[in-house]
Design goal:
Strand order of the largest sheet: 3-2-1-4-5-6
Number of strands: 8
Distance between the termini: 41 Å
Number of helices: 10
Radius of gyration: 18 Å
CATH topology: Rossmann fold
Largest sheet: 6 strands, parallel
Structural class: alpha/beta
Number of domains: 1
Shape: globular
Length: 234
């Protein structure tokens, strides 16, 4: 990478950290956690998502993930955070509370993910983008599948990683590729294409339209269409 590209990626990382921007940007509850034991954050996902079906080989459900983390860390504190869409009843992946608490010490329902990042030592995930957000914030990440950020030497990867990922990448390289070079952004205010920096500015200023009933209906429809159905998904 050129020096200007590295600087641009570092600036993006710093802005995301400072502005506390995440994928969902949901404010949630703050949870009191112990300070005298290692804390592992287990990230729940939507279980019928393509990244789970195609990007994992052994651990394919939230319960399996919890079991693996507990088996590997029997004496540590384990925190389980359900996926927001699962909590809202929009998608598949819910674990019964009594079952989850057999392996987790706390279920972080409606929790602020950045608050959790501030207190946990390690994040465990199958393929969630939360792992990428944790890497941006300097946290240790363990993957059990093959998310896009795994296999580059930035995370501990326990799943089967594609053999083509045989290079070592810096965090700046990963951020440049995934947030700057690859995506295309649209500015809803100016109604035109824009760079990632403009999108971050809109999020920083909360200069976006508010969600409402229509968005909730669209989210529910997205969940239904993502569920396997023999009539349109084969």
């Amino acid at each position: 990478m050129r020096s200007d590209q590295i600087k641009r990626a570092r600036d993006i990382i710093e802005r995301l950290r400072k502005s506390k921007i995440t994928k969902y940007n949901l404010k949630g509850n703050h949870i009191d956690l112990p300070f005298d034991t290692p804390i592992h954050l287990v990230i729940g996902q939507v279980e019928d998502d393509a990244s789970i079906k195609l990007g994992t080989d052994q651990v394919k459900t939230n319960l399996d993930l919890l079991k693996h983390v507990r088996a590997g860390h029997p004496d540590d504190f384990i925190l389980y955070k359900p996926h927001p869409d699962v909590e809202a009843g929009l998608r598949m992946g819910k674990i019964a509370t009594d079952m989850a608490l057999q392996y987790a010490d706390i279920i972080a329902e409606n929790a602020d993910i950045l608050n959790l990042f501030d207190h946990v030592n390690t994040i465990h995930t199958m393929t969630s983008n939360t792992g990428f957000e944790a890497l941006i914030r300097g946290k240790k990440v363990v993957t059990y599948g093959a998310p896009f950020y795994a296999g580059w030497g930035l995370s501990t990867d326990l799943g089967q990683i594609p053999s083509r990922r045989n290079a070592k990448a810096s965090l700046e390289t990963l951020v440049y590729a995934t947030l700057i070079a690859y995506p295309r952004y649209f500015d809803p205010k100016q109604r035109r294409a824009c760079p990632v920096e403009t999108t971050i500015t809109r999020l920083e200023q909360q200069d976006l339209s508010k969600t409402g009933v229509a968005i909730r209906i669209l989210s529910k429809l997205q969940g239904l269409l993502a569920t396997p159905n023999p009539f349109w998904r084969r």
